[in-house]
Amino acid sequence: MNYFNYFTEIEDTFVRRRGKHLLLGTMDWALMTAWKEMGVPLHVVLNGIERAFDSFAAKPRKRSVKTLMYCQEEVEAQYAEWLESQLGAQNGIVDGEQETGADYVEEENLPFPRATILEHMQSARAALLQICEERRRMRDDELCDALTRAAARLGEMEKDFARAAPPSAEKLEEALTTLEKMLDDALSANIPQKELATARSETEAQLEPYRNRMEQPTYEQTFG
Prior knowledge:
Blueprint: H1 3-18, H2 26-38, H3 42-58, H4 72-91, E1 93-94, E2 97-98, H5 100-108, H6 114-136, H7 142-163, H8 169-190, H9 193-207, H10 216-223
Antiparallel strand pairs: 1-2
């Protein structure tokens, strides 16, 4: 991912969570540059921003968040955890093969086998690209751009999840939630409300047979 995309994704997420458009200052750009040069993955930065704002929302303060510096501590804490997971992946390899015991523990900590999760992520990425290609035949708009960006970020997340030891289902869910919010915003901005309402009704009808077996938060998140 080039510098422009890295900065744009961070700025968009910060502005969305802040709720008001605010141009980033010199110190904010310097901070983003430092993260980029440190090798902090984009999805790690975005997770840190989301968590920092979630913490702020849980304990509202009189002063609003004005700069990206507010998120620095959380972003760098997330990066430290990510580095640890990558080191764990390297240490878990012996003569080019994953240690059987470690692999077993990893599978225990996941809701599904890692390979199954990765296959699902790959399928989702392919679907995003296909939707983008089909839409681009009709119009090349911000939604196409968002779909392309989402597919690229999902690709980065796949690589990290494949290497992580142990892999964290919680971290993956947080990253996917951040991605989902970005796509939701793009859909709301580019799809007529009538079409969105129709899609929601169709989704509700498809989920109706399973509603009693789904937890309420999961059901609401599926089409909320």
